[in-house]
Amino acid sequence: MAVPTVFLDGEEFASGRQTIEQLLEKAAGPTSKDDFAEKELFDVLVVGGGPAGGSAAIYAARKGINTGMVVETMGGQVMETLGIENMIGTPYTEGPKLMRQVEEHINEYKVDVMKGQRAKDIRRNDVIEVELENGAVLKTKTAILATGARWRNINVPGEKEFKNKGVAYCPHCDGPLFAGKEVAVIGGGNSGIEAAIDLAGMAKHVYVLEFLPELKADLVLQNRLNTLENVTVITNAATKEIAGSDHVEQLTYVDRETNGEFTLAVEGVFILIGLMPNTEWLKDRIVLNERNEIVVDKHGATNIEGVFAAGDCTDSVYKQIITSMGSGATAALGAFDHLIRS
Ligand SMILES: Cc1cc2nc3c(=O)[nH]c(=O)nc-3n(C[C@H](O)[C@H](O)[C@H](O)COP(=O)(O)OP(=O)(O)OC[C@H]3O[C@@H](n4cnc5c(N)ncnc54)[C@H](O)[C@@H]3O)c2cc1C
Fold first, then answer.
1. pTM, full prediction
2. CB of 312 closer than 6 angstroms to any ligand 1 atom
3. Are strands 268-271 and 167-168 parallel, antiparallel or unpaired?
């Protein structure tokens, strides 16, 4: 009940559309730390290969400076997006196509792209040091953090057990698999209500469960939702458990006002309770806000001199492809400005 998933020795290994190149890189695992011993000092080292990282690398490389990129999975969240209709100047494109073009654009310049590598620490000594999970330490004059975000888990019994067996996070990817079925959407914010509207076009019935007494989505979305006959909104609902046999069969929630327990017979549960920035590894180094987003100024600069950040991992108000690309450009120009002044 999900997009194609690859298993290695019984463990989930990769999910969603993957190229042979990506699977091989993943299977090979992080290269040995010795492979990085000869790397020279970078002028700009970008961490992340989504729209923000791609844009930052292109802007930096176009200044003719020594640019590197550390990327766990090239393309980022956009690889999960089927139709994109808000890339200005391109009325319609698809995620994998757009990010392939971004990668081709990066490859037009001299950028040292280190794929399949995860950064685990950053510190400033004489220069900035970025440590990778394989133990290698890359040195750079400036760094741009563009590690994006991932869906937040609800952490109730059944969520983990039924992932890809009815529990889903991406309505654009997995929605069509639930055509004609009863589904629940957890989360009454913009992403939850957008998902409910989307799913209502395919599913038999959509239940929206919001923890708070009222939906948090923009009024325009709520008004649209209210016109749909196959949607039921349940507020004050605390999800207790997702259960079933070999796939999801029901969801239990507690009414927070009455403490009554209710069960919905659903085959799909879409969890849309927000995004979590990929910033855990930065906690002791970089100033984060209460949502664990990197705090940046208008140049994209963080609290560490020479370290900039861009995209969904930052405290930017809007999280979109175009805003991420814009902030990637800002961070690269900020880093370049910092280089010529120091
Ligand atoms: C299903 C879905 C549909 C969407 N639809 C749209 C849409 O139609 N239009 C739109 O404008 N926006 C859309 N968005 C939002 C958009 O995708 C994001 O705003 C955008 O991708 C953010 O870009 P980013 O580069 O900041 O982060 P991401 O795209 O999250 O990329 C992060 C990158 O960092 C890498 N990374 C993470 N941690 C590390 C680490 N420690 N070391 C090395 N690399 C690391 C990842 O592998 C990845 O390459 C959608 C998002 C989703 C999930």
1. 0.85
2. yes
3. parallel
Instruction: Considering the candidates 9, 35, 121, 174, report the single residue annotated as catalytic.
Output: 174
| CA 115 vs CA 25, 38, 299: distances in Å | 8, 17, 27
145 lines ligand 1 (CB under 6 A): no
Contact 118, 30 (CB under 8 A): yes
CA distance 278 to 264: 33
Rounded-to-integer distance, Cα 249 and Cα 294, Å: 39
Residue 7 has pLDDT above 90, yes or no: no
Nearest CA to 337 out of 60, 145, 45, 47 is that of: 60
- Residue to mutate (ligand 1; options 81, 97, 99, 276; most atoms within 8 A of CB): 81
All structural domains of the chain:
1-30 (no CATH), 34-151+276-341 (3.50.50.60), 167-273 (3.50.50.60)
The percentage of residues in the chain with a pLDDT greater than 90, rounded to a whole number, is 78
Q: How confident is the prediction for the chain on average, in pLDDT?
A: 94
Q: Which amino acid is at 198?
A: D
Q: Which of 43, 170, 312, 313 is catalytic?
A: 170
Q: Which of 173, 255, 297, 312 is catalytic?
A: 173
Among residues 108, 53, 78, the alpha carbon closest in space to that of 309 is found at 53
